[in-house]
Specification:
homodimer, alpha/beta, Urease, subunit C, domain 1, TIM Barrel, 2 domains, eight-stranded mixed β-sheet, 15 helices, 22% strand
Chain lengths: 414, 414
Amino acid sequence: MTPTPQPDLILYNAEQLVTVDPARMTPDNPLGVIPKGALVIKDGCITALGGTCDFDLPDTTNTIDCTGQILLPGLIDSHTHPVFAGDRSDEFEKRLQGTSYLAIAQAGGGIKKTVAATRKASELELYISAKRRLETMLSFGVTTVETKSGYGLDSNSEEKSLRVLQKLKRELPQTVCVTYMGAHDIPIEYKDHPDSYVDLLCHDQLPKIAEQKLADFCDVFCETGYFSVAQSRRILETARTLGMKLKIHAEEFTDLGGAQLAGELGAVSADHLLHISDDSIQAMKQGGTVATLLPGTAFYLKLPHYAPARKLLDAGIPVALATDFNPGSCMSENIQLIMTLACLNMNMTPAEVIQGVTLNGAKALDLHHDRGSLEVGKRADLACFNASSYNELLYHFGVNHLTSVYIQGRPISF
Amino acid sequence: MTPTPQPDLILYNAEQLVTVDPARMTPDNPLGVIPKGALVIKDGCITALGGTCDFDLPDTTNTIDCTGQILLPGLIDSHTHPVFAGDRSDEFEKRLQGTSYLAIAQAGGGIKKTVAATRKASELELYISAKRRLETMLSFGVTTVETKSGYGLDSNSEEKSLRVLQKLKRELPQTVCVTYMGAHDIPIEYKDHPDSYVDLLCHDQLPKIAEQKLADFCDVFCETGYFSVAQSRRILETARTLGMKLKIHAEEFTDLGGAQLAGELGAVSADHLLHISDDSIQAMKQGGTVATLLPGTAFYLKLPHYAPARKLLDAGIPVALATDFNPGSCMSENIQLIMTLACLNMNMTPAEVIQGVTLNGAKALDLHHDRGSLEVGKRADLACFNASSYNELLYHFGVNHLTSVYIQGRPISF
């Protein structure tokens, strides 16, 4: 194999080039690993890849020796909530004393507390804190991140949050996907007439947001005490009509039917799924909906069980993994730790886990046409880790293995 | 309060000066926190501390503004195994498929695999990898660390490991305590006559190590399939006679009686204790033995339960927390993550957890006379974290909050 003439950059001698390319996957090599791999970049894209010994290294090109490192597609965190103000670290002690997440919410804590602080915060204040959080995610190797609004819950505050995310999308090196989630909670002023809030979202917020092109996706918290299936359907159908792609928080605490709805509407992903039924799994399969699992939340909330990852995988549904970074149920930007949690607590194999934060993460954002695996023609978004195998990345936990990250072929400095 | 004349350094405006000073502790302020605190350092020691508004800031002194940060005593990791060669990341997948730690050990994996690689490794190779691991620990705020040999299991390899640790003790900025743990496993060549190995330890290895002053502590893995209580007693009594302080791995997988022995011998600490009996708790209390708990191991090995931290705390036993960093059951240098695990999975309060990695960590190393809390006269070993409260340090998990670290008043660069 010979690289295209005058590439911009060649990375070589990677202990494992973890392609996650379905065409290279075999039962014995489930991630299509090329040992001692090399990868050629031109104009921000991958133009060739293979074993290092198959390449000529031209004198005139930048070459990077990756000995002692493994190369993965840039990681994809497909579910985060980084725009919020306020501090909920006091709830941590309360939960340790046995108070549940729902009980804290009913006592004025939870999302409502964050909403009050977020409404008060200036756009600059929200921008500064969200930027720091996305930079931290990047430092763990995340080159594409989905980010949700949903701590404003009134037109001004939701638009303020989305403007912050749009500004970060323009300014940060990583890809920032923006999701409108006005249906994250029923705001206190609509407590006694939640359907009027759904009316507001469908007739006022969603059309305005669509007109200003403030969001790529629309998401709804479909859960007992939050939005019913019927309300979720209204919101998501309206969003679809307005050209947004759909996501849904489903079956996190109860089996309400949100995953079934996701399949029916052809949502891009249904997320959480701890209480998903067998029928809903079939509905998701028919709808081509990705299952996005968030083991950090079950870990942090000490839930009695995790999402049934094995069942979903066995049903042939693509499983993505994400942090669910948020101030109430998973205050962690560390996708690498989430990967170890998925192995330990959801019995996923290291290969399934890595696919969950690369190719399947890309599928959960409908971006798998240009990223999520190392293939000729895809974006040169790369994460390099100090490890001799991808097993080591998960086995040696709690530390940041990242050595460098490339976005469209450009090395990113921290 | 006025600082001593011409201090070397004043740190001020810390959101919380977390003293962990028993004289300042109250039920409402269990860590003796001074809000907006300041601390004065002279000749490597703390010479004054209090509220920032009570201090004059002299022009001629180095002053550090700690706004947005909290100040803790340098963290103490009182149980680690950093000297080893080889790679056991392949065992991670085996364990995920349901193979137990003991079953992997019986199949030639586990400690024995690491022993074979460590025996083969050169002293330089062991030094390089152990140094990197201790530097990683320091990067999380650990200014005092206990380190064990125990992957050599023959005289040459144990001495080689201890020499590596003694070299690191001299060279690294943090305090490195060295523990001899020839009784970490029965080496394969003594499999059928383990008492002969105990003879070797007592008559050959221990006297030589004591003569060369290679170790401060002696530790034994007292466990079914490893060392019996009678064997552990022989080894520890010999070590005591030779002037070493005592530690013991006790009741990790079974209730064998090691904690009882620890109390009886007045061991400095008994570690693990997942299966400790009520009688053994009383024995530890009488012996003044610290309980060192290692929740990362239960987390990583997916054990059915954790050590009974609340029972030990309620009995009035000082509880220390440590990583148990090792290649088989807890490959993580991140003490901050271990702290969150202790909250979530052992129902310890944030205050108890912080005491576990400061004052009680110092007690587990018999170093509480000069460190483990911020008090006038103690060493100025400090860890500064990007947080507004100590709750936040635990609540916002999986990321490294450290901003800077001081050892005997000197800022350490990474």
